[in-house]
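Figure 3 (text version): structure tokens given as input.
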């Protein structure tokens, strides 16, 4: 850690702490939606594997017959005013954001909304498109302006304890004490984690919180038309491209199947690919001599339409694996409506 960042982290932490204290004391009010609200969020700035868990929860709610709305922020996207995501939009990922479009595509029974303010978007969704049984707030833990009935907080099992220092010293959006507001804590990527590092983080968890554990596995890849199992990649040379917070984890997962090119390209999280980016990616892939050009599902919704030959782009399909008490997350969510 760089010692000169510590004072900046202290100031940031104090500001966030004061804001949270004002909400806790009722000095700042929060919008209360007329339906149940479940928040799925992080303690750090990203890369915890939140989207697969959100998708997992949405499918559980739909199976239970619930009418579900998702509220997300149009982060690094063109949409500003609250709007319903339309996956048929010719530039959907650029306009609404990659994760909202990915969730909408994977869950056609769910209505996804984006906007520049989550509480305003929640109010818009119920006023203009309801009724709903539940609103799921994507990345909502720090958005205190929207009241929620249940807080799920995701911790990345591969994240070392030192990274939980508040930004800019670490990756924390708020202090570790923020976990006291969590109703449920989920560890993700447990199959990729170092056991000792995970135990160190676990030793700091607040008492009395239920904790669930999940792993992720890449079960297959597809190019928009054809789907093949990941075993197809065995011994192949892979050119990776991604714009995610933790490209190292993506690379680690893919390294289990093939040889990763040193020329692989990584962009800033939520990067909006341009035509120039696509031309560069296609050219670098051809020069690399690799067998497969592979990206994440989140990147594919933005990148596939830009490539000269979209069929050359293969995207991964993540499968969520429950460790321990299988079905417990579904059971907990269901109890909110009993």
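Below: residues designed for each position.
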């Amino acid at each position: 850690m760089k010692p000169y960042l510590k004072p900046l982290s202290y100031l940031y932490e104090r500001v966030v702490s004061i804001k949270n204290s004002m909400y806790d004391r009722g000095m700042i009010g929060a919008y209360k939606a007329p339906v149940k609200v479940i928040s799925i969020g992080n303690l750090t700035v990203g890369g915890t594997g939140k989207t697969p868990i959100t998708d997992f929860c949405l499918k559980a709610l739909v199976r239970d017959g619930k009418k579900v709305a998702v509220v997300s922020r149009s982060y690094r996207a063109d949409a500003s005013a609250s709007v319903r995501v339309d996956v048929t939009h010719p530039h959907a990922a650029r306009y609404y954001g990659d994760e909202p479009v990915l969730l909408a595509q994977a869950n056609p029974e769910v209505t996804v909304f984006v906007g520049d303010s989550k509480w305003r978007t929640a109010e818009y969704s119920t006023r203009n498109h309801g009724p709903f049984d539940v609103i799921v707030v994507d990345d909502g833990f720090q958005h205190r302006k929207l009241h929620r009935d249940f807080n799920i907080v995701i911790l990345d099992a591969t994240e070392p304890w030192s990274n939980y220092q508040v930004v800019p010293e670490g990756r924390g959006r708020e202090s570790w004490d923020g976990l006291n507001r969590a109703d449920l804590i989920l560890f993700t990527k447990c199959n990729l984690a170092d056991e000792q590092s995970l135990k160190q983080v676990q030793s700091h968890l607040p008492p009395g919180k239920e904790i669930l554990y999940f792993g992720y596995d890449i079960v297959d890849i597809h190019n928009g038309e054809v789907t093949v199992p990941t075993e197809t990649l065995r011994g192949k040379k892979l050119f990776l491209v991604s714009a995610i917070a933790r490209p190292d984890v993506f690379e680690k997962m893919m390294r289990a199947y093939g040889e990763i090119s040193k020329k692989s390209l990584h962009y800033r999280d939520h990067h909006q690919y341009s035509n120039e980016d696509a031309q560069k990616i296609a050219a670098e892939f051809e020069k690399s001599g690799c067998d497969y050009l592979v990206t994440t599902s989140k990147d594919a919704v933005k990148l596939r339409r830009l490539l000269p030959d979209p069929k050359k782009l293969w995207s991964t399909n993540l499968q969520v694996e429950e460790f321990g008490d299988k079905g417990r997350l579904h059971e907990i969510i269901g109890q909110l409506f009993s």
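The domain at 217-319 is CATH 3.40.50 (Rossmann fold).
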